[in-house]
Amino acid sequence: MAESNPRSLDEIATDALDGVLGWLADEYLRVEVSGLGNIPECGAAMLIANHSGAWGLDAFVLHNLLHRELGRPVYFYASQVVFRMPALASYARHHGAFADDPTLGRDRLTDGHLVGVFPEGFDGVGKPFSQRYRLRPFSPGFAVTAMQTGVPVIPVSIVGAEETYPKLGSIASLARRFDLPYFPVTTLLPLPAKWRITVGEPVPAPAPPDSFAERSAATRRLCDAVWITVQGMVDRDVRQRTHPFW
């Protein structure tokens, strides 16, 4: 009788984290999602979301939900920090997350896939709780890629992550010890804030102009337009909730 191949540690870690993220989204954080119909069933698009909460849990919750609901892969641009943490690295590799790509997934978009980017980067998750839901400036790289590939940009707002892991301070010595942009002072376990994730209508990317100056201006206009859209979505969803925890 043939023996089945043993599962690798990466597979075990990925399945475990998938299960934990699914439970967090469905039972603990009670995530409400709207606007999934704005994401195409086929073809390429860039998903651009705000980034918040001291540990960046929003990236993993968003990916887990999209992976389950869409029935097609979404490839997220991730920080190298993710790939230095074994369990998170296993999950990221399994689901095709990528780093160190200045084109932000242009090849994947050209092949017709979905790519997700958090253009605030560490500035979004590193801001203090007193500045919650005030988006940091977006890095314009996603706008360059969207214009080069001609794909639509789909804005995504996430509300609830700020209260789940509030950043109350930072410990500089630990940040240096672990080579991190910051080491947050926050709760040991995530707080059960109720989350709302909203997917907005696609923003078309203009064709890139011929001159460098015109391309730079068009890139900035697209980046600013998406920032304004996401900030507006976040503001609306924050206003509509009666309390962060229900």
TrEMBL record:
Domain Phospholipid/glycerol acyltransferase: from-to ranges: 45-161
GO MF entries: acyltransferase activity
Entry keywords, A to Z: Acyltransferase, Transferase
Signal peptide: none
Protein name: Glycerol acyltransferase
Organism annotation: Streptomyces anatolicus
